[in-house]
Design goal:
alpha+beta, 6 helices, 4-stranded antiparallel beta sheet, Neuraminidase, 2 domains
Length: 345
Amino acid sequence: MSQLVCATSNCKRIARALCHCCNKNICLLHVKEHNDAFLSQLNPFTDEINSADYRLDSIDIKVLLQEYHKQLEEWRKASYKTIDQIFDEKSKELQRILIEKIDKQKIEINLVRDTITKLNEEAEASQHDLDLIKTKISRLHENLTSIEQISFKIHTYPLTVDDNAVQIEEKKDLQTILSSPFKTIDFADLSSTSLFLTTDTVGSSIIEFCLLPTVELSRQWKSPDTCTKDEYINRIRYSHETLGLVIQNLTKNTLKIELRCSKTLDRFWSIPLNSGLKLTQCEYCAFNDCQWLFIDKISSSILHITNDEKIKRTCNYNSKLCNVALFGTGILAVLTDKCINFHKL
């Protein structure tokens, strides 16, 4: 009967032990070396758990909640002193939600760190231990990303002297909203009290018509206030006293989306778009809280643009996109090549 040889590289000694972690045969000389090789894999996990702990400690609760506190403050001033107590309670509730999430992850981090320390002290770690630690750390990073991108929806109602005057719920992100529609139909339409038009020429003008009580010309802007002489305004959208414009530069063959004031046409921000996109391959619409959604028809993706010129997220849609529209503040309609899907925000 032939004898088994040690699995260690360049070792021809007779194997005396079987490693139950990797099912390799090891000689007596290399047993400790083989075990040390497994233990050395714990070191990167220590660095990763420390990195996760640093991320958690770096989360600035005040920064994350700044915009939501501002909404609560405006509501508090409008309702005078009778709502001061509810304001304080709801501010603490926002903090409590975030603190509970942070505390939960802190406990998980400490548990994983204790496991790594124990395995190091006992100088014994199996492949199962390593895989389990790796899985837990991966899950921790996912949870930390969720905390860092946390969003809330603040519901305010006419003044009532009870605790239900303000309700706080964590906002769904755009990817969750688009995951499944609650209703599908074949058509839709919109109306408005004002109409903004652009002229179909290079160096486009913008014209505003008042629709009520009769249709009348209200004001008009021309180049260079609207765009340069070699640019063309192809899309225009109105929302919360702002205008969203898609502008093509015919000389450079580029596209950009700009946000302007609807009263003065002052530019708030300008974002260049994918250089490969054509005008017929993109759409956009206003979103909640003076934010915008930009549609890339080629990749069937939606860019979520915040009111401070940041692309918050890019989400892929599960059908071929044609257009999107916001109904009120609670429903997002998505037009595909086959139907219209409605998503609750």
